[in-house]
Amino acid sequence: MSLTALICDDSVLARKQVKKSLPEGFAADILTASNGLEALDILSSQEVGVVFLDLTMPELDGIGVLEAIKARQLKCVVIVISADIQPEMQKRVAELGALAFIQKPVNSDKLAHIMHQYGLI
User: Fold this and answer.
1) 0.85 exceeded by the pTM?
2) Domain 3-117 class in CATH
3) DSSP state letters, 70-82
4) Half-sphere exposure of 9 (CA within 13 A, CB side)
C-alpha cells in the first residue's frame, strides 16, 4: 500500500511550490485541497499519511483542521507550512499535534530534513 499525502493551501501557486519542494525519495500519491473543509472531506473519506497544511485559508483555517483531526482522532502526520511565524502560533499548532512548522516559502532542504527526521522518506 502506498502513502497518500495531502497538500492543503488556498493558493494554487503555494500548492504547486510545496509539491515541487517534496524530496525526490518521497513516493506518495499527492492530493490537494484549497481549504480546510475540502481537506477534512478528503481525510474523512480516505487514509492520508501526511498533511502539508497552511494556516490562513477561507472556509476553515488550518487551526480548525488541526482541531478536527485531533477531535476525530484521525491518523495522519501534519506539517504546517505558513507565513504566520509568530511564536504563539507555532506553540498552538504544536499543542494541536502538528509534527513540524515550516515558514513559507518552503525551503526544500528544510522540508527534506524534517521528513527524513520523522521517517517520512
Assistant:
1) yes
2) alpha beta
3) HHHT---EEEEEE
4) 21
